[in-house]
Amino acid sequence: MLKFTDTKYYYGLSFWAVSGQGNGSIGIYNTKGDLLKKFNPDFGKQFTYSFVLDEFTWIVDEPKFNLSIYPNPSNEFLMIQTYENIDNATVSIFDAAGQIVYEAIKSIKEDESLPIDISKLSAGAYSVRIARDNKLIWNKFIKN
């Protein structure tokens, strides 16, 4: 359910009695940017819209193995450490827009660190995902 409330003036986004006293719109868009529902901006104090999601686009399993990444923030190499042996795991790095910027199949030995060269990445926030046997674990880091 989506609920929007104008808590100050109760005019909505557009007030017909005083033209120019606000404008705008509220809409629901899918991940491709397609407009799914547009709401009338002259809704008064509030509106409520109920909807049902027919599919999930993102499911993250509970972590099944421990993961540490360091240093964070990092400049050249990101070290990934686990506390158990992980064989043939897919290591992926995603930028802030959700695009994969690094992906490789790696094995990580218990109590050892796996270095990942991030020197060519732009400065910013990233997510690391380790995928193995339908199990996912995520962590975040900053590239300076």
What does this structure look like?
- The radius of gyration is 23 Å and the shape is elongated.
- Strand 10 (124-132) and strand 11 (135-143) form a beta hairpin.
- The model has no long low-confidence stretch (mean pLDDT 79).
- The chain is 0% helix and 47% strand.
- The protein folds into 2 domains: 2-49, no CATH class; 67-143, Immunoglobulin-like.
- With 144 residues, it is mainly beta.
- It is built from no helices and 11 strands.
- The two termini are 39 Å apart.
- A 4-stranded antiparallel sheet has the order 8-7-10-11, with no helix packed on it. Strands 5-6-9 form a 3-stranded antiparallel sheet, with no helix packed on it. Strands 1-4 form a two-stranded antiparallel ribbon.
- It has strands spanning 2-5, 26-29, 35-39, 46-49, 67-70, 77-82, 86-94, 100-108, 113-117, 124-132, 135-143.
- Sketch the major β-sheet: 4 strands, antiparallel
The CATH architecture of the largest domain comes to Sandwich
Count of DSSP strands: 11
Taking Cα atoms only, what radius of gyration do you get, to the nearest Å?
23 Å
Name the average pLDDT.
79
Number of alpha- plus pi-helical segments: 0
Structural class estimated from helices and strands: mainly beta
Q: What overall geometry do the principal axes of the alpha carbons give?
A: elongated
Short account of what is shown:
By secondary structure, the protein is mainly β.
Fill in the keyword field for this structure.
144 residues; 2 domains; four-stranded antiparallel sheet; three-stranded antiparallel sheet; 11 strands; Secre_tail; Secretion system C-terminal sorting domain-containing protein
